[in-house]
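Operator note (shift B, R.M.): manual run for Isopropylmalate dehydrogenase-like domain-containing protein requested after the automated queue skipped it. Running by hand, logging everything below so the morning shift can see what happened. Input copied straight from the record, untouched. If output looks odd, do not overwrite the archive copy; leave it for review.
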Amino acid sequence: LVGGPGITSGRNYGRDYAVFETATRNTGSHLVGKNLANPCATLFAAVDMLKHLGLRDHAYLINDAVEKTLNEDRVHTQDLGGMATTTDVVDNVVREVERHTTVPLDNRPHVGARA
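Run finished. Output pasted below as returned.
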């Protein structure tokens, strides 16, 4: 078992295009706007895309940060038996990435932020 639809990414490769997404298309539309969705499948899809584009160092930086967030820091959303919000998970991943890079990540939009 891999942890459910909130964890797994999906990859689709064609002759001309590649698509990276969550593994299932119904991963929580009822959670929109509630700050409860598990962002890990989306983050892992981004990791897959970065690998595909040849940006392996970037991919592994994010992958390792997500895995540390889940496995060592145990920051889990409700679907994984935890109480963390989407923002809690993303903030923890960002902290882990920042620990291993000199690029500041403090200008990112927050959940619910309006453009």
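Quick read of the result: Strands lie at 9-13, 18-22. The two ends are 38 Å apart (CA to CA).
Leaving this for review. - R.M.
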